[in-house]
Amino acid sequence: GGKGGGGASCMEFTIIDCPGRPGMERRVSEASSLADAAIITVSAKPDEFESSLMQFRQHASAALATGMKTFIIAVTKMDDPTVAFSPTRYAEVEKAARDFLRTRLKPDAKVYTLPVACLAKKKKNANISRPPPTGSPMDLCIQKSKRKRTQCLVALLASLKRLPKRSHYNVSKRPLRMFVYHSFQAPGAIIALGRVETGEIYIGQNVTILPIHAKARVVSIEHHYERREKEGAGSIIGVGVNGMGVTCFRRGYVICDDNPSVPTEIKAQIVITNQPYSIRPGMCFEMDVHCAHVPVKLKSIIHRTSGRSRDGKEAGGEILEISPKSLGPTERGLVIFTILKPLFVQPTKDCFALGRIVLRNRKIIIAAGSIKSTLNTSPTANAESEKLERRNEGKKKEKNLSSSTLDSKA
């Protein structure tokens, strides 16, 4: 994620390092939901890129599912003896990465490639903080591969534009939506870490924690280890709240300044990934929404629709079949899911980050899409809120009794 103004001198970036090894798909999905752009490093060494190509596709698919439109492909180990700044190898790796993203991105998306050499003792070829000097092995590699002279990584980051549909200045007047990805106990308050998607948050504000409808009060805000009075959309911050325990905060909860209803069913437009299985009503999946991971059940398939053409000339969306029995690989459709655990989500037109979904089955991405509308409201949300209030009142009474017994003994 980043926050910037008119130039590179006022740009602030939050670097999120997510694990790339197999079995950490959840963490990759959570990091993608927090970020505005992705830097994917691939190795130029022989057999290394080919062996990790499936892993690259999985991580790129997770970033694409969150609506990310800016990618930087960093081709590393260009100074390895087996590569030796080979322009042929650089062009081969770049083509494989670009071809995978080009068929899945919209025309307004941006994909940058950058050769990187970090193993050499001479830092003039690194291409991290400054462009390679004219005539250097890295510069000759770029020229021979018939590519434009690229910027260094730092300058490329400074020139990035934030995703227009996500946290931007035009959503600051909307209601507050901040999803939580971590919480811990601090002296005098509970610290919730997350990203502000819409609206503004300030000290002294009364907020509601969804989906449990718990009430709390903001007592402190920190951004990049600096205390702030208020923060707007796009900021990854830590918020100190009073009025609830740390066990009440869970990953995937949303902080709001109003009290909207919690849906039990959602209507979503999804596309099945290139996997060998089809989905049918009655099947259960794990759904990733921002930092939440909840089980869902496919209730019904409304209709099957046509997809967008690869050249972008045909927008798609034409209804092909009403109430199909299943959706096969690479097919699109409008479906209804039943949420099996309490979760607060919204359509993408109201909050983009709370409306992008990813469906998994055994750690494999089955489908991705966006929420069009929410159906039904949760009847158990108020009951959970009342249970939480009774628990807090019981803890206060126990604390008062313990303090009174200590006073009587004294």
Explain what the structure shows.
The structure is a single chain. The protein is of the alpha+beta class. The protein folds into three domains: 2-158, P-loop containing nucleotide triphosphate hydrolases (Rossmann fold, 3-Layer(aba) Sandwich); 169-256, Beta Barrel (Elongation Factor Tu (Ef-tu), domain 3); 263-377, Translation factors (Elongation Factor Tu (Ef-tu), domain 3, Beta Barrel), CATH 2.40.30.10. The chain has seven helices and 21 strands. It has helices at 25-34, 48-51, 53-65, 87-102, 137-144, 153-158, 381-409; strands at 2-3, 12-13, 38-43, 70-76, 110-115, 177-186, 189-198, 201-202, 206-210, 214-223, 226-227, 230-231, 236-242, 254-256, 263-272, 284-289, 292-305, 319-322, 332-339, 356-361, 364-377. The strands form five sheets. The chain has a six-stranded antiparallel β-barrel with strand order 6-7-13-10-9-14. Strand 6 (177-186) and strand 7 (189-198) form a beta hairpin. The chain is globular. Residues 384-400 have a biased composition (Basic and acidic residues). Residues 266-372 form the GTP-eEF1A C-terminal domain. Keywords: GTP-binding, Nucleotide-binding. One of its GO terms (molecular function) is GTP binding.
